[in-house]
Amino acid sequence: MTLPLIFSPEVAEAKRTGAPIVALESTIITHGMPYPQNLETARLVEQQVRDAGAVPATIALMDGQIHAGLTPEALEKLAQSNGAHKVSRADIAVCLAKGWTGATTVAATMICANLAGIDVFATGGIGGVHRGAEETFDISADLMELAQTSVTVVAAGAKAILDLPKTLETLETQGVPVLCYQSDDFPAFWSRSSGLPAPLRVDTASEIGQAHLLRGQLGLPGGQLVGNPIPETAEIPTETINPIIQAALSEAEAAGVSAKEVTPFLLGRIFELTDGKSLDANIALVLNNARLAAEIATSITALREKADQS
Fold first, then answer.
1. pTM, whole model, 2 decimals?
2. Which of 144, 156, 232, 298 is the most buried (most CB within 10 A)?
3. Catalytic residue among 25, 145, 235, 295
4. Domains in the chain, please, with CATH?
């Protein structure tokens, strides 16, 4: 049985020539915002990768295939799809077997990127340990995926709705390096700082690329999390966003929202309570992450070429 993996023409050409590639998730398209804003944002993120010198590979499950890279027609089809499944490690195989349309979370995108031979993945923010997890045990599969799948993930930290100290503790326990880019603080998605110190600081894309390759040479499993702070002009300061997050959390608890529905509910309420500013910030940070991911992918490609020539 052959692996159900296909490349878009653009990504196939990049694979043939050895050009740098950046994986992109698809849940932001199907579950992050309405059509046509989702399509416009997806196109902007892909173009940001191209402008920074790499090739975008938006990952999605369609018609029983893992698509590494979407044609313009496939991207539009996904953006207009209704009822796409939000897919993680646990349900990726069933989604493919049933031929469902699946939008990949961080964990699923990492799996697919690794299968496709793509080293770097840009997202908005990773999932993590939910507040109250000591009672609910609600912990995102993203953290375990980072511990076992060799992909460097560029994010604006973990989503600020989470328990960030417990998220960092879990990543440390799992041996996942958390590299904060040009910052001594761990970023908090909409805000540049969570108030938590950076576990590791890096200042160049080349350092991140070297660390990625050295982990492979050392035989260390898992990937890297790169915490890339949101641009200053787009951030929502913690003193502004934290009371809004607390209000949304209280509403979710009162409504009995749980499991996979928690994050979409909270993000939706925060969007309403910030008059849309949270979504504007989200788009800005994803674009910023796409640019850095392209630089890292380009660095990894250059380092490999240099090693091959020596």
1. 0.96
2. 156
3. 25
4. 1-118 (3.40.1790.10), 125-310 (3.40.1790.10)
